[in-house]
C-alpha cells in the first residue's frame, strides 16, 4: 500500500536479487559474452603473420587491430551506459551481436590494412562492447550474496574461449586462409545475439499493479455516493498524472558523473589506467615472440591455450576466495596482490628464450591473469554499488581505452625498433607492479585512515563496503516522501465522501423528527459505517 507505483512515475520498490533461478542462465550468457570480448582480440593475433605478408606491414601495424578492438570495447563505455539506461540491456545486446558478426564478415573482403581497422577493429569492437557491458550489469542485478562467485565464473569465459579460439584460428588459417577464417569467426559471433535474448529484466511491481486495478473496481461497485466519490477518485488520478508529468520533465540521468566524488572510485580508475598499459602486452606479442625464437607455428599458438587452460580454474577459484566473509571486506588488497603477482611474472620471465621457459611463464601468467580478471569488476561493484554500476563501468572503460591505445601499439613499435622482446616484458611488468602498489597504498592511506577519523554517523564510501545497503536506505526514504505526498489527495477524497455522508445523515434525522418514524434508528449508524469503510477503500486506492 505504501510503496510507489512505477507506472505512475514514482520510485519503484527495489527488487531483491534472486541469487539463482534464471540468474544461472544469465550467468551462462555472460560467460559466453565475456569469452568473446576478451579472448577474441588475442585470438586474432594468430592471423598477424599472414596479414603482414599480404599487406606488407610491420608488427605495430597489425597490433593496432587488437588494440582498436580493445579500445572500442573500453572507449564506448559511456555510449553503452546511455543506451542501456535508455533502452535496456536486451535490445542493446541484440544490436551488438549483429554489429560484431558483420564486422568480421566484412573484414574477410578487405584489400588494405585501413579497411581492416574499420571492419574488424571498429565495427567488431563496437559490437562486442554493446554486449559486454550490459551482460555485466545484468549479472550484478541477478546476484548479490553470490556475486563474487558469479563474477569469477563469468570471467572464466575468457580463458575457455582463448584456449579454444586460438587453436581453431590456426586450423582455419591453414585450411581456408585468413579470409576464410575471418568469415567463419563472424558466423560464430552471431551467438552473441542468443546470449542477449536470455537477458530477461527482473519484474518489479506487477503484483502490486494488479491489486491497484482490483481496488479501483471495488470502489466503483461499493460506494453509495457514486457521483461525488468518482469525482474524488478523478481528483486523485489527476494529481498523480500531474506528478508524473513533472517527474518526466526532470528526465532520467543517463550518465551519473557524481561517482567521481567517491574517492574509492577515483583510486580504482587511476590504478586500472596504469594496469591496462602493460596487462595486455605479453599475451598479444607472445605468439610472434615464440615464432621468432624458432618455435613452430602450432606450438606457438598452443602457448595461448596454456594460459587459457590455467586461467579457467584460476578465475572461479579466486571468485570463491573473494566471497569468503573475512576476505570480501578486503577484496581491494586481494586485487592488488593479483596485479603484483602478474607484474612480477612478466619481469621474471623476460629472459625466457626457449619453449620450456615460455611454458613456465604461461603457467604463472595464467594464474595471475585469472586472478586479475576475476576481481576487477567485483572490486568496482563493491565500491559504487549495483545501482550506479552501469555509469561507473562506462566511465572506467572510457579512461582505460586511452591506455589500451597506448600500450600494445607502443610495444609493437619498440619491437620494430629494438628487435628485442626482453625490454617489452620488463616495461609491461613494471607498469603492472606500479598499479598494484598504487592501489594498495592509496586504499590504506586515503580510505582506511579516513574511515577511522570520520565520526560514526557519517558513512564514507569504501572499497568492499556496504554501498548497496546505503542506496537501499535512501530508496526507502525517497519512497516514504512520495507516499506522504500522495496522502494529500487521499484526504481531499475522504473529506468529499464524509461531507456527503453527513449531509445524508442530516436529511434522515429531519425526516424522523418531522414524520415521527419512517426509518429505523440504526439507519444513520449503518450509513456512517458504510462511509467509513468507503473512506478506507478510497484511501487505499489513493496509495
Number of domains: 2
Termini separation comes to 6 Å
CATH superfamily assignment of the largest domain? MFS general substrate transporter like domains
Strand content: under 5%
User: Regarding CATH, which class of the largest domain?
Assistant: Mainly Alpha
Per CATH, the architecture of the largest domain is Up-down Bundle
CATH topology of the largest domain: Growth Hormone, Chain: A
Helix content: over 70%
Transmembrane segments: 21-40, 63-84, 91-110, 116-137, 181-202, 254-281, 301-324, 331-352, 358-377, 389-411, 423-447
Subcellular location: Cell membrane
Domain Major facilitator superfamily (MFS) profile: 23-447
GO molecular function, one term: symporter activity
Task: Write a concise synopsis of the structure shown.
The protein has helices spanning 23-43, 48-55, 59-75, 77-87, 89-107, 113-142, 147-155, 157-188, 191-197, 206-222, 226-250, 263-279, 281-292, 297-322, 331-348, 355-384, 389-418, 421-453, 467-515, 523-542. It has 543 residues and is mostly helical.
List the helices and strands and how they pair.
Elements: H1 23-43, H2 48-55, H3 59-75, H4 77-87, H5 89-107, H6 113-142, H7 147-155, H8 157-188, H9 191-197, H10 206-222, H11 226-250, H12 263-279, H13 281-292, H14 297-322, H15 331-348, H16 355-384, H17 389-418, H18 421-453, H19 467-515, H20 523-542
Helix pairs in contact: 1-3, 1-6, 1-7, 1-8, 1-9, 3-6, 3-17, 4-5, 4-6, 4-17, 5-6, 5-8, 5-9, 6-17, 7-14, 7-16, 8-14, 10-20, 11-19, 12-16, 12-17, 12-18, 13-14, 14-16, 15-16, 15-18, 17-18, 19-20
Amino acid at each position: 500500500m505504501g510503496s510507489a507505483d512505477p507506472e505512475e512515475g514514482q520510485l519503484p520498490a527495489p527488487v531483491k536479487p534472486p541469487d539463482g533461478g534464471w540468474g544461472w542462465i544469465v550467468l551462462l550468457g555472460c560467460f559466453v559474452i565475456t569469452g568473446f570480448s576478451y579472448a577474441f582480440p588475442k585470438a586474432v593475433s594468430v592471423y598477424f603473420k599472414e596479414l603482414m605478408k599480404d599487406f606488407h606491414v610491420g608488427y605495430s601495424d597489425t597490433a593496432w587491430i587488437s588494440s582498436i578492438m580493445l579500445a572500442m570495447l573500453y572507449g564506448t563505455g559511456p555510449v553503452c551506459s546511455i543506451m542501456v539506461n535508455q533502452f535496456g540491456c536486451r535490445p542493446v545486446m541484440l544490436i551488438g551481436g549483429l554489429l560484431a558478426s558483420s564486422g568480421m564478415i566484412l573484414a574477410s573482403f578487405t584489400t588494405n590494412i585501413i579497411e581492416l581497422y574499420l571492419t574488424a577493429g571498429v565495427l567488431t569492437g563496437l559490437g562486442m562492447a554493446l554486449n559486454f557491458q550490459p551482460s555485466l550489469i545484468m549479472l550484478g542485478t541477478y546476484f548479490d550474496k553470490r556475486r563474487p562467485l558469479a563474477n569469477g565464473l563469468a570471467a572464466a569465459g575468457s580463458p575457455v574461449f582463448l584456449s579454444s579460439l586460438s587453436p581453431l584460428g590456426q586450423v582455419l588459417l591453414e585450411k581456408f586462409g585468413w579470409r576464410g577464417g575471418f568469415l567463419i569467426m563472424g558466423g560464430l559471433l552471431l551467438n552473441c545475439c542468443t546470449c542477449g535474448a536470455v537477458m530477461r529484466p527482473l519484474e518489479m511491481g506487477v503484483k502490486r499493479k494488479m491489486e491497484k486495478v482490483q481496488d479501483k473496481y471495488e470502489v466503483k461497485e461499493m460506494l453509495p455516493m457514486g457521483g461525488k466519490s468518482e469525482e474524488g477518485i478523478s481528483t486523485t488520478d489527476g494529481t498523480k498524472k500531474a506528478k508524473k508529468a513533472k517527474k518526466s520533465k526532470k528526465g532520467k540521468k543517463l550518465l551519473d558523473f557524481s561517482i567521481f566524488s567517491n574517492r574509492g572510485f577515483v583510486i580504482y580508475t587511476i590504478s586500472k589506467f596504469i594496469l591496462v598499459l602493460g596487462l595486455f602486452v605479453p599475451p598479444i606479442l607472445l605468439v610472434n615472440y615464440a615464432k621468432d625464437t624458432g618455435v613452430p607455428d602450432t606450438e606457438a599458438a598452443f602457448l595461448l591455450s596454456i594460459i587459457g587452460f590455467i586461467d579457467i580454474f584460476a578465475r572461479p577459484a579466486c571468485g570463491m576466495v573473494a566471497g569468503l566473509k573475512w576476505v570480501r571486506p578486503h577484496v581491494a588488497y586481494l586485487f592488488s596482490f593479483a596485479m603484483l603477482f602478474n607484474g612480477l611474472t612478466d619481469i621474471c620471465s623476460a629472459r625466457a628464450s626457449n619453449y620450456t621457459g615460455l611454458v613456465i611463464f604461461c603457467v604463472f601468467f595464467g594464474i595471475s591473469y585469472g586472478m586479475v580478471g576475476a576481481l576487477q569488476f567485483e572490486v568496482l561493484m563493491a565500491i559504487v554499488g549495483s545501482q550506479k554500476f552501469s555509469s561507473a563501468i562506462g566511465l572506467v572503460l572510457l579512461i582505460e581505452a586511452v591506455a589500451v591505445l597506448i600500450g600494445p601499439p607502443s610495444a609493437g613499435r619498440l619491437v620494430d625498433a629494438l628487435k628485442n622482446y626482453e625490454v617489452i616484458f620488463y616495461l609491461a611488468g613494471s607498469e603492472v607492479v606500479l598499479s598494484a602498489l598504487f592501489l594498495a597504498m592509496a586504499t590504506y592511506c586515503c580510505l582506511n585512515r579516513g574511515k577511522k577519523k570520520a565520526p560514526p554517523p557519517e558513512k564514507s564510501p569504501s572499497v568492499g563496503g556496504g554501498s548497496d545497503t546505503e542506496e537501499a536506505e535512501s530508496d526507502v526514504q525517497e519512497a516514504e516522501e512520495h507516499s506522504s505526498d500522495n496522502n494529500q489527495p487521499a484526504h481531499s477524497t475522504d473529506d468529499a465522501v464524509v461531507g456527503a455522508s453527513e449531509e445524508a445523515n442530516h436529511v434522515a434525522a429531519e425526516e424522523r423528527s418531522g414524520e415521527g418514524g419512517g426509518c429505523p434508528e440504526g439507519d444513520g449508524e449503518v450509513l456512517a459505517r458504510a462511509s467509513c469503510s468507503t473512506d478506507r477503500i478510497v484511501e487505499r486506492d489513493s496509495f
